[in-house]
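I hope you will forgive my troubling you with a question about protein structure. The matter concerns a single protein, recorded as an amino acid sequence and a row of backbone structure tokens. Please examine both parts with care and let me know of anything in them that strikes you as inconsistent. Here, with my thanks, is the record as I have it:
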Amino acid sequence: LGTMRSLARVGIRSYCVTEQETFVTRSKSYRKPPENYQLISDPNDLRSYLADFPADKGILIPCSDQWIRAITELSVEETRFKWSLPSQELITILVDKGKFENLLEEHGVDRPRTFLLSSETDIEPVFNQEPADWFLKPADSQSFFPSIRRRHSVLDRLKRLKLCLTRYHQTVFLSCFKSM
């Protein structure tokens, strides 16, 4: 939203092409694509969407991990649109919380203690180590967010953690607010 506002202030036309209802779509800076041009919901459709988009050139600015991946999968040669993003290899590391955790550990970066949880059997040994303020971060925030309207969840009881893990059926990361 901040990017769209900044572009609007200096007179640069920008369009939001996703049909997902968010705070951005309710902003006065929000603008749909030109008339008769549909919005898209799946980032995997970006390549075909841009092929016919009625603009000679443009800059792609992603708004989520899914859209970043979709943009980095495009080749510069196949589109008249530009972007400024790291390599696809680096994006893969940054959006995969497990790979990112490994990168931080490899470089000795101070970070919250983080544990990968794939099933209920992974929970108790970690959760019972010592009292802590834990927060749950799903491996895929975009699929987690629509169901609970948050990117993470603070957990203070084992029962709540088990409920979250079984309800969302996906790998999650449990982190402690205390650094390593």
